[in-house]
Amino acid sequence: MSAAVLQACGIGASYGTRRRPVTALHPTDFTLLAGESVAVIGRSGAGKSTLAEIVLGLRTASTGHVMVHGQRFCGAGRTPDQDHRRLVQGIPQDAGASLPPRTPVRASIERALTKLRVDGDHAARILAAAETASLDPALLERTPRQLSGGQAQRAAIARAVAVGPDVIVADEPTSALDSATSASLADALLALPSRTGGALLLVTHDDALAARCDRILTVRDGTVEQTR
Ligand SMILES: Nc1ncnc2c1ncn2[C@@H]1O[C@H](COP(=O)(O)OP(=O)(O)OP(=O)(O)O)[C@@H](O)[C@H]1O
């Protein structure tokens, strides 16, 4: 059996004021194993992005904590340490959210590697990540504005992979693409766990895409159920 790479232990989130909190995510537990893909589905407003943002360490949980390889990654009132940020990386709905639009992709990835204190040969890492993301390496010299939507999403995948995370969280990464581009990007995404040895948490409204994942977490009104 594969090892647990990420454990969510009672993570929950609320908005509003301390006196009048509104629960967006009830305390929830789940585990991601090495090499597996897990879909997160549910209606609009159910709490999927809230869940994804907590796992990414972008949003502070109001309860619980997240462990990566048995070490505390983030928790209630606590964001990840700079040294740990690289462990979980995101692919957003729109690549523009992770890549500056006017900077060549290679330079943006290089900057991320430096900021996250990733050791080793950065050029080799970037090339290998482009290959994993099925991104033509020539496109690394272009800015996101000079790429199609699908190419820009592959560049965002390459950025996440180059960092060498244990977990990749993708929040509706195909929703802005046409169906053919979306299908080929889905193939690249679903190949990530076996190519990187890490886990993929994939938020999606696409039931067919979710069905291709190893497991499915369904969020209903802030409550997470494991439905497969
Ligand atoms: N910053 C915020 N302040 C107040 N309420 C918020 C905030 N962010 C999210 N919410 C609320 O929390 C709930 C969950 O939102 P979330 O974005 O996680 O849903 P979602 O399932 O990702 O929806 P969608 O599929 O439409 O992206 C919603 O009711 C939303 O209105």
From TrEMBL:
Keywords: ATP-binding, Nucleotide-binding, Transport
Source organism superkingdom: Bacteria
Signal peptide: none
An example Gene Ontology biological process: transmembrane transport
Transmembrane intervals: none
GO molecular function, one term: ATP binding
Pfam family, one: ABC_tran
ABC transporter domain mapped to chain residues: 6-227
Family: Belongs to the ABC transporter superfamily.
Protein name: Putative ABC transport system ATP-binding protein/peptide/nickel transport system ATP-binding protein
Organism per entry: Zhihengliuella halotolerans
